Amino acid sequence: MKLSPSSVRKIVFLAVAVLQSCASANFSREFENSSLRFSRLTSMPSSRAYMGYCSNGQTTFVIGGESRTGESFDNILSFNTKSNSWNEVTPVHISAEKNINSAISSGSMFLFNGTKGQLNSPLSPIDINVREVAYNNRVPKVDNVSINPQPLFKAGISEYKGYIYLYGGMVDHETYSNTLYRFNAKKKEWKQMAHLPKQMITQGQIIDNKLYVFGGQNDKPIDEIYMYNIKVDRWVKVGKLPEPIVDAAITSYKHHIILFSNEQVFVYDTHKGSLMRFQTNIGALKGMGATISNNNLIIFGGIKINNSGKEVFSSAVYKLDIFKIIS
């Protein structure tokens, strides 16, 4: 019996998926005990955590977030790494929220989700509006351009070629989500894609038509790496982390995905399927942000635990030459 070309493609894909599902990330111990020394830059104008963040490659943006008093910010900050200076994107003001998902696509910034609740009530009503921020305008402005089909708390977000992908997160105090939605930044249209392998909060980045998500949590911490192939709309497990990564800031540079979590930097090479882990001089943070700007890895904000066990909101900004961790 002669198989059709479409049948052959399906068989090949399934065989590859089976092989990948049995694989583990090639964890390199070469750099496991190496310590990266970040330098300090100008601090943010105010301490904040659980903010939205994104970069256009040159400028880092910080959106909303929670203050040390438990209130939320309603502004958007921009950070120029070359001049080492912070500015406010004015006259733009948003709803005062934390846990905003943000991404730059098709020349604009888009904001999703976001809550007003304090740390002890994180699942207050979630913003259903999709906001487009025209930050490049002579007079920047913000407009509501769509309604989110499934507002979620702590969803993951990734942008690729004019599309923004939102995935995972929490629906309510007890229910984790496994949905994946794609938003067309130009047409302002939504499409639901293949479900995640698990209901979970997770973080990811897209490289070469593939979305990689790392760890996260549902009822327990997660240590797996999953890959979503955009072209065929399917998920497969591609590896395992050396430890669960629950609260991470994530960014990418070329074919490398960089995570900061629990005082450590993890670098995943999507071409090799390899993972490196470095210690840092930053200390433990949660609710921080991370971007790549002007070939530097920038880590900022978040909450530290001091020597007496008290949570302290941070305004610190750290910088590392990206070429110190990738080749």
From TrEMBL:
Keyword hit for Signal: yes
Keyword Nucleotidyltransferase: no
SUPFAM superfamilies reported for this sequence: Kelch motif (SSF117281)
Keywords, alphabetical: Kelch repeat, Repeat, Signal
Signal peptide boundaries: 1-25
Pfam families, sorted: Kelch_KLHDC2_KLHL20_DRC7
Alphabetized PANTHER family for the sequence: RING-TYPE DOMAIN-CONTAINING PROTEIN (PTHR46260:SF3)
The name this protein goes by in its record: Galactose oxidase
Organism: Flammeovirga kamogawensis
